[in-house]
Amino acid sequence: MNQQTLKQQLTDDMKASMKGGKKKRLGVIRLVLAAIKQIEVDERIELDNARVLAVLDKMVKQRRESISQFKDAGRDDLWEQEEFEVAILQDFLPEALSDTEIDQLIAKAVSDTGASSIKDMGKVMGILKPQMQGRADMGAVSGKIKAQLNA
């Protein structure tokens, strides 16, 4: 059976949202597809699943930053909308890794690369990034790697 690409899945969900009258969901999906299309036009390429995941991940990060800023400013209406958008975006991301799974992957990558100091962090990140793309906050993962290498 031919596995559907993430981009096709987004397009199909957009059509379903149009038919179902889910205007808020439709708006979020259109934003994602527009961001994907913009990159494809700018770089004259067709995005694969990994790049689409990266776009989704970036959009989630942007919204999380906005949520904290809107909460600080007391703008309940705006942060609630951003949280709704994050929930929709996460529907298309793979299931997030647990802290235990992240720690196990880090330990394996450190032992595989023979990393012993902070200078080896690039090697460890190089192994982990493809495995964790869209499934973990790479900033938090980076912090955990630093802590482990400094220990």
From TrEMBL:
InterPro entries: Asn/Gln_tRNA_amidoTrase-B-like (IPR003789), GatB_Yqey_C_2 (IPR023168), YqeY/Aim41 (IPR019004), YqeY/Aim41_N (IPR042184). Pfam families: YqeY. One of its GO terms (molecular function) is carbon-nitrogen ligase activity, with glutamine as amido-N-donor. Coiled coil: none annotated. This is Transamidase GatB domain protein. It comes from hydrothermal vent metagenome.
